[in-house]
Amino acid sequence: MASTANSPSTLLTRPNFSIQTSTFLPKTSQRSIFQKKKPFNFNSKRVVSCKASNGKQNDADHTSFLNRFDRRDILLGLGGGLYGAPSLVRDPFALAVVPIEPELSSCGESTVDTGKTCMNVPCCPPKLKDSKIIDFEPLLGSKIRYRPAAHLVDCDYLYKFELAMETMKALPVDDPRNFMQQANIHCAYCNGAYSQVGFPDQKLEVHYSWLFFPFHRMYLYFFERILGKLIGDPDFAMPFWNWDSPCGMTMPQIYLDPYSPLYDENRNLEHQPDVLVNLNDGKSFVKPKKTDDFYELTKREQIKSNLYVMYQQMVRSAKTASCFHGAAYLGGCASETDIGCTPEPRGGTIENGAHIAVHKFVGAKNPPYNEDMGNFYSAGRDPLFYAHHGNVDRMWNIWKTLQGKKRRDFDENVWLNSSFLFYDENANMVRVKVRDCLDSKTLGYDYQSVDIPWLRSKPTPRRSRPGVGRGQDQGQDVLARRKSKYFRRFPIVLDKVAVRIEILRPTKPINKKKDDKEEVLVLQNIQLDRNDSVQFDVSINDDEDDDNPCKPEDAEFVGSFSNLPHGDNCHSEAMLSTNLYLPLSEALEDLKIPSEDRFIVVTLVPKEGEVSIGNIKIDYVC
Question: What is the pLDDT of residue 273?
Answer without folding.
Answer: 92
